[in-house]
Amino acid sequence: MAKFFLRKKIGDRVANGHPWVFGNELGDSEGTAEPGDIVEVYSYNGSFIGKGYINPASQIRIRLLTRDKNETIDEQFFYKRIKEAWEYRKLLGYVENCRLIFGEADMLPALIIDKFNDHFVIQSLALGIERWKGAIVNAIQKIFNPKGIYERNDVPVRTIEGMEQIKGFLSAPFETNITINENGLKFHVDIENGQKTGYFLDQQDNRRAIKPIVKDADVLEVFCYTGTFSLHAAHYGAKSVLGLDISETAVATARKNAELNGYQDICKFEALNAFDVLKQWAKDGRRYDVVMLDPPAFTKSRENIQKAVTGYKEVNLRGMKLVKPGGFLVTASCTNLVTPEMFLNVIGDAAKDARRTLRQVEWRTQASDHPILWNVPSTQYLKFLIVQML
Ligand code: SAH
Question: Cα dist. 48→39, 59, 137, 156, 216 in Å?
Fold first, then answer.
């Protein structure tokens, strides 16, 4: 196995538990490695750090899988890691749906596995983990004996790793339109054509958090995707709910979800661009008791953080103007590039511009099946805030 040595004058990030080794942190090497191979990493003075997979095409040159010199990376290794991750979720109370593997936070960098009851959706986002896809599928088969496994590898980041974007079955074909249960409601999930893996499991606890503020309320949900927050609002007693999303497909599914739960009279959905309508609606004097915003990331790269901040500010300012005095704003941000502090500052700035005072109700993050590993700050990505707007 090839050996790679870290340069002397680099920070202690890797030594302190971060699994990524960047190309410019590497000095000498011994032996050769093909892209995707397992290699050993040592400090400049030869002490063992870990084993991981390498890809010269990526700035993140090596991602560590283990820090145990005696651990072999083989089929059994992936079985053990996935089994451990499932035991951890079960310990936390997950039964039916969960993010089973959250990449770095489960010591399986660049691997995502979502469990929708008996169905599993995989994303392998680096070449080195792609190589082990067979072992990963075998492990899922062995542990869960599932109804089906699907890969949603139609993700642009794969091209950076020199891989094609693909999606398809990793088990015998199955019906990819499924329904799942969450918080006493049912939701259609389109594994094949839905966004990301089909459903945003990370908000499942946050959806429950709106319960006390929606009773008898007129609610607006912007960026509603398949209407999950809207349906929770109806379930918790809202008088009326309007959900908006730019995607016709998402809105069609949201309507189906309303019917599936018997809330079609309360929840209405429209396919509209939020940036086109919110300003006008504020001018028209429309007001809601609760406005919920869960916009897309606005940026995927560090260079464009300012663009994301501008986007969040704009959307939140517009949302705030639609909230009645004493009403509530529910607002989220799903990119790790915007830190919790930055997000709160954006909301504070928007409130200043809207000349409103905020009273904080809830300040939350992603559900615990998306664990936050303290050594890997990017594992904390979701911000979720409920404020009363005085
Ligand atoms: N809250 C949802 C997830 C929202 S994801 C859930 O928990 O399931 C963000 C959504 O914003 C996507 O569905 C996307 O289609 C939508 N979107 C993106 N740009 C938009 C725009 N300009 N106007 C309205 N919706 C938009």
Answer: 12, 22, 30, 34, 61
- Over the stretch 95-125, which tens digit does the pLDDT of each residue have? 999 999 999 999 999 999 999 999 999 999 9
14/4 Cα distance (integer angstroms): 13
Domain architecture of the chain: domains with CATH: 3-66 (2.30.130.10), 75-175 (3.30.750.80), 200-389 (3.40.50.150)
DSSP state of 74: S
Q: Is the pLDDT of residue 300 over 90?
A: no
Residue 353: half-sphere exposure toward Cβ, Cα within 13 Å: 15
Residue 326 sits at φ, ψ, to 5 deg, of: 85, -5
Specify the long-range contacts of residues 132-137, CB closer than 8 Å, at least 24 apart.
132/78, 133/170, 135/74, 135/75, 135/77, 135/78, 135/79, 136/78, 136/82, 136/111, 137/170, 137/171
- For residue 302, is pLDDT > 90? no
DSSP 79: H
Check: CB of residue 149 under 8 Å from CB of residue 91. no
Give 308-340 pLDDT, tens digit per residue: 999 999 999 999 999 999 999 999 999 999 999
307 CA distance to ligand 1 middle (Å): 17
Q: How far is the CA of 285 from the centre of ligand 1 (A)?
A: 24
Residue 141 Cβ < 6 Å to ligand 1:
no
Is residue 301 over pLDDT 90?
Answer: no
Is the Cβ–Cβ distance between 140 and 120 less than 8 Å? yes
Does the beta carbon of 225 sit less than 6 angstroms from any atom of ligand 1?
yes
- Rounded to 5 degrees, φ, ψ at 118 are -90, 5
Contact (CB, 8 A) for 320 and 351? yes
Ligand 1 atom closest to Cα of 223?
11
Return all residues near 175 (Cβ < 8 A) that are at least 6 apart: none
